[in-house]
Specification:
Layout lengths: L3 H10 L6 H8 L3 H13 L3 E3 L10 E3 L1 H16 L1
Antiparallel strand pairs: 1-2
Length: about 80
């Protein structure tokens, strides 16, 4: 995974669900960058909304495919 923003969000979502606002607070990213990164991760099936019907407080979590990516990148970091 190339984008540091995508990696940061995946790391934050690997153990818990969060809203975009919580991700903004945790990453210090702009809301627009956070939304773009969420969209990119959703398009790659690395995260998903746990309550997509709620348009105000949508929570996201890592998918099984996303968990494999998190494990792989952590392993790559350790090996470097």
């Amino acid at each position: 995974m190339r984008s540091k923003n995508r990696q940061r969000i995946l790391d934050l979502l690997k153990d818990t669900e969060k809203t975009p606002s919580q991700l903004v607070k945790d990453t210090n990213m702009y809301l627009t960058h956070t939304h773009r990164t969420i969209r990119e991760l959703k398009d790659k099936d690395l995260i998903k909304a746990t309550n997509p019907e709620d348009k105000i407080y949508t929570f996201y979590k890592v998918t099984p495919k996303g968990k494999k990516i998190v494990k792989k990148t952590k392993k790559d970091i350790v090996l470097k």
